[in-house]
Amino acid sequence: MKENNKLWGGRFSSSSAKLLEEFNTSLPFDKRLYKQDIKCSKAHAKMLEKCEIINTKEKDLIINGLETIESLIDSGEFKFCISDEDIHMAVEKKLIELIGDSGKKLHTARSRNDQVAVDFRLFVLEQNKYIRSLLINLIETLINISQSHTDTIMPGMTHLQHAQPVNFAFILCAYVNMFMRDIHRLEDSYKQNNYCPLGSAALAGTPYNTDRFYTARELGFASPTLNAMDSVSDRDFALDFLYSLSVIVMHISRFAEELVLWSSSEFAFITLSDSYSTGSSIMPQKKNPDIPELLRGKSGRVYGNLISLLTTLKGLPLAYNKDTQEDKECVFDSLDTIDISLRILNDMLKEITINKQNMENACKMGHLTATDLADFLVQAVKIPFREAHHIVGKVVAYAESCNKDLSELTEDELCKVDSKIPQEAHKVLDIYTSMNSRNSYGGTSTASTQAQIQSIIAWLEIHKIGL
pLDDT, tens digit, for every residue of 274-323? Predict the structure, then answer.
């Protein structure tokens, strides 16, 4: 029987079955981690030399060999072989092929358990910063649009029913606040997980006199992880990232639903660019909002990836288990989904047309200034709000009986509904007056919205740092 030629194959008397190699391998997807694997191996080699576990010549040979391998992979010349199992073994095997016995010393004082933990963690932290940069770009686009629409009036809704007049920038700033929270969530996750597991070895640490603080600094981590057994089995950093991506895609999906509604014939608040719309194979008149619909639909797969990893991890005993090989594809898939979703949403928004007149016309349906009239009666006539609410309800019923919106009633019509309504109450029925009366902190008035925009611009300058 053929001898086992794996780097770990010394205790095995026969080679691996072909089906085992297909089932066991992670190389088709974890080769994506090659840059992190090489970076972490170089840091490990430097630490081994610093601690006099290998000599300077060996360290230089290892680092030069790793840089050669990175160049080969970058250029597409590297030949990946499924029998190598994973990116770690593929790189190490090639290194030994290039530099001989010195390459065999690289794996001293480490295991694939801490190797994959540090590679994957470093990848997630790097992508954490990348996703934050995409969110920053999206927020900047939304703010650029908002600055031109702080007095573009439209109906604000609850229960998808007309409620009160707001401005378009105010609604965009609401979504900006969601994406700002997404950035805060990613920042918190980054700090929580910025610790280096390298040097934990298989599960119990190493008998070699190593310096884990050195490798942590070399790789940009805050410090090494505290417990070796936890370090090799921990995938909380991946769960945190998947949860953050799930919340981002939920926010994208909510915004996409607005875009679908706003671009419909019934609303016609916005027009999507032809560059970011599609047609029908049978109905030549159709212009479909496929991008917002797909953005809305992507949430399902991202949520599924989070649940998948939670389920994989839920029953694992300490320490490392092969089950955790299932941690990467779900992260890669969610990352790629959020990446293209944020980029195409950003590009699409830059080309939308805002139909201001249609938005204003919609404010003249649904009696949007009813609450303003009730508030006026409370403040000017000094009657309890619940009584004012009842009076305004009668005014709304009268307006509907006349097939009018509340804002279209004359002074005489308004006053004859109830004797407690003074003539000056009519002024509060104007939709622009209503919108601008809400000048409280965080409110929808033009002035308040402009203040929100300035606050967000200042926030952006702080949170761009380090990205």
Answer: 999 999 889 988 899 999 999 999 999 999 999 999 999 999 999 999 99
Can you give the three-state secondary structure of 246-283, one letter per residue?
HHHHHHHHHHHHHHHHHCCCCCCCEECCHHHCECCCCC
Residues with Cβ < 8 Å from 454, sequence gap 6 or more? none
Q: Quote the CA–CA distance of 34 and 30 in Å, as a whole number.
A: 8
| Residues acting as catalytic residues | 159, 280
**SS3 for 431-459, per residue?**
HHHHHHHCCCCCCCCHHHHHHHHHHHHHH
- Does the global pTM surpass 0.90? yes
Q: Provide the 8-state DSSP code for 11.
A: G
Q: Pairing state of beta strands 153-158 and 353-354?
A: unpaired
Note the pLDDT tens digit of each residue in 29-42. Answer: 999 999 999 999 99
Q: Would you tell me which CATH number, out of the four given (1.10.40.30, 3.40.250.10, 3.30.70.100, 2.30.30.100), belongs to the domain 366-453? A: 1.10.40.30
Alpha helix stretches (DSSP H) within 377-421 = 385-401, 411-417
